[in-house]
Amino acid sequence: MKLTPDYFQIDDLLSEEHKLVRQSVRDWVDSRLKPVIDDYSQRHEFPSFIVKELGKLGAFGPYIPEEYGGAGLDHTSYGLIMQELERGDSSIRSVASVQSSLVMYPIYTFGSENQKKKYLPQLAAGEMLGAFGLTEPNHGSDPGSMETKIIDKGDYYLLNGAKMWITNSPIADIAVVWAKDEEGIVRGLIIEKGMEGFTAPETHNKWSLRASVTGELVFDNVKIPKENILPNIQGLKGPMMCLNSARYGIAWGVVGAAIDCYSTALQYSLERKQFDKPIASFQLQQKKLAEIVTEITKAQLVVWRLGTLRDKDQAKPTQISMAKRNNVEMALNVARESRQILGAMGISGDFPIMRHMMNLESVVTYEGTHDVHLLITGLDITGIPAFK
Ligand SMILES: Cc1cc2nc3c(=O)[nH]c(=O)nc-3n(C[C@H](O)[C@H](O)[C@H](O)COP(=O)(O)OP(=O)(O)OC[C@H]3O[C@@H](n4cnc5c(N)ncnc54)[C@H](O)[C@@H]3O)c2cc1C
């Protein structure tokens, strides 16, 4: 019985370094996260100890060069790290995704040398936590219509507006925020905690990603020093490139959540007896398990190929979009089927499945909803935009 499926021998395609990276994160998840994550989720509390430990583990910005505090790893390694973290919990993978793809990536890609030196080593080490502000109360799937604005005041920019549904916001030291200038051009800014007029209230009562903190970013005449603007990007392309990197990590991450559901259901089905037999001996349960392992295998092949393309800088945003959509839907279906295999026990916090299932309800919505990703593929294959 193999609890971590590798039906198509994808391990043969990984390097020794890939396997070492995966193993070190897997060990951390098994020893440090799994024993406590259900309690934190039930209490709707963020396990703050993870931030420094993920930094030590090299899970923040693993593909950022070593001179800025990163590990200089390839994107397949980044994917494997996300997969292992999400085997533990999507909240924890979300924290690593935001820090890596939505905060470190834009500072590294669009930032000045000073910004890179000032923020990246601390972010990589987990001494600083970041947030990413794109979504607004009135603009989610359509961020191009954002209302948050900066006005050039000569020595500084004046920032006004609000962002909503922002991972890490109440506990973040900095936030990469997207706002329009007076000409309507989207610009990226680095906002620091404590700036006058800036608040980050928490969003309460989530039924999903309960071990991650979500909140708002509210800007009321905040004076932003000019050196805090990201100099090397203008337009919606900036946040979209960040989302592309994060979506890539999600496509890998959710495979981890699906594997955790599958291995839990397989083990349970072999141990649980009804009608004097293990439930794994019933054809209906075998059908579920066989379909689950098939879907996980297909998703594993998609992300492995996507990783090799991204390592050559050839992965197209449309390919990443398809992988994110397909794999999140796969993981949600796996979670739902696995939960049924456990019967009543499937809803208990003694097992991780219900937690994964609730988490995945956020993952299917953030970083582009399932519908929006369908429209992206639709546009790609027909040439006709159906967004409006
Ligand atoms: C837990 C959590 C954490 C998050 N973290 C962050 C973060 O750190 N930073 C950040 O900026 N954002 C974050 N988000 C926000 C997330 O990215 C948005 O929720 C997402 O983009 C969808 O926007 P919306 O919720 O406003 O939904 P809407 O855009 O209002 O969509 C509602 C529904 O309408 C559908 N829809 C919209 N447009 C179309 C269309 N053209 N055609 C067909 N259907 C359409 C959608 O698919 C969806 O089903 C987070 C969200 C959650 C739940």
How would you describe what is shown here?
This protein has helices spanning 16-43, 49-57, 75-88, 90-110, 113-125, 237-271, 283-311, 317-341, 353-363, 370-382, and strands at residues 130-133, 149-152, 156-167, 174-180, 186-192, 198-199, 214-225, 273-274, 277-278. The protein is an alpha+beta fold and 388 residues long. It has a four-stranded antiparallel sheet with strand order 2-3-7-6, covered by helices on one side. Strands 1-4-5 form a three-stranded mixed sheet, with helices on one face. Helix 1 (16-43) runs parallel beside helix 3 and helix 4 runs antiparallel to helix 5 (113-125). The longest helix is centred in the middle third of the chain and has 35 residues, at 237-271. Flavin-adenine dinucleotide binds at residues 98, 132-135, 140-141, 165-167, 209, 214, 362, 365-367, 369, 371-372, 375, 387.
Q: Would you tell me the structural class of the helices and strands?
A: alpha+beta
Mean pLDDT over all positions: 98
Share in β-strands: 5-15%
- How many strands? 9
The separation of the N and C termini measures 50 Å
Helical residues, percent: 40-55%
* Overall geometric form: globular
In this entry the ligands are:
flavin-adenine dinucleotide
Write the layout of secondary structure elements.
Blueprint: H1 16-43, H2 49-57, H3 75-88, H4 90-110, H5 113-125, E1 130-133, E2 149-152, E3 156-167, E4 174-180, E5 186-192, E6 198-199, E7 214-225, H6 237-271, E8 273-274, E9 277-278, H7 283-311, H8 317-341, H9 353-363, H10 370-382
Parallel strand pairs: 1-4
Antiparallel strand pairs: 2-3, 3-7, 4-5, 6-7, 8-9
The structure holds flavin-adenine dinucleotide.
Flavin-adenine dinucleotide is lined by residues 98, 132-135, 140-141, 165-167, 209, 214, 362, 365-367, 369, 371-372, 375, 387.
